[in-house]
Amino acid sequence: xxxxxxxxxxxxxxxxxxxxxxxxxxxxxxxxxxxxxxxxxxxxxxxxxxxxxxxxxxxxxxxxxxxxxxxxxxxxxxxxxxxxxxxxxxxxxxxxxxxxxxxxxxxxxxxxxxxxxxxxxxxxxxxxxxxxxxxxxxxxxxxxxxxxxxxxxxxxxxxxxxxxxxxxxxxxxxxxxxxx
Length: 180
Fold this sequence. Notes:
Elements: H1 6-50, H2 58-64, H3 66-73, H4 91-95, H5 100-106, H6 121-139, H7 146-162, H8 164-179
Helix pairs in contact: 1-6, 1-7, 1-8, 2-3, 6-7
């Protein structure tokens, strides 16, 4: 700003930074709105096809491929005999089930069941990759403008339309918790 003092510039910078922090905090609602239903939907579709503790089943390992199988079986939770869900895995991991390589063997009769019939695997994968990038930017405070926060919210709505079944269940759980 021409003619502004150092103190004025510093004050404006601090205000802008605080505004971006508030936007980031608000964006986490949208992030979890996608992340949890996505993970749960893929998990439930895999359970439907391969059974409980699917990551230990040979058929799953062959179809998912060595990389996904090794990642799942390498977690602490996977080694717990009673554990039925690997919730320690990241958003990026679950998105890998929609990557072209894994999708070839898992989409049609398995993973597609987690999404609305109108979901397009290629488009959804691209949207989720962009969503993940924005999410990581928010987590590491590298999102520096309102447009990026607006974009993650728009992507959340677009993606939500494709994972409507799990999202509806997630919304019911949240509503019950708020009422309690």
